[in-house]
Model the fold of this input.
Amino acid sequence: MNIQILNLLAKNARYTVEDLAVMTGLSEDVVEADIKELEVAGLIRGYKAVIDWEKLDNAYVSAVIELKVVPQDEYGFEKVAENIMKYSEVESVYLMSGTYDLCVIVKGKTFHEVAMFVSRELATKHEITSTATHFVLRRYKELDVELVNTQKDEREAYFI
Done:
């Protein structure tokens, strides 16, 4: 398993095999074989672009939903998480430690659409004992990609 290739692809999935070969000092054939092996082994699960949706007129709304869940016999939280992740509105599901059990990232076209999804689909499940919805108001960084202009103005201010 080539951790160096994984780290490079995690930073930029658009690197070509040629780019990765130069960066790692490996041959293109070795890099290509390593990537195929990582995909087959399930370590590389997909390739995605990180998009700053706020720059579009049809931006979507995201929310972080905290769920308290009753673990299921023999399966714990697994079955609940598997059922939740099947919804198209759900971007991510995480098992958490602390005051709640599952963290669910949900997207929708409006705040109301997200709220209705939570109240109709999540809050009604008998194994979910409570929900807490936190709407994302601004994204600054996502998946290691900065979404705001972080370049500082190099000009100095002079006061007289």
Notes: The helical segments are 3-11, 17-24, 28-40, 78-85, 111-122. The radius of gyration is 21 Å.
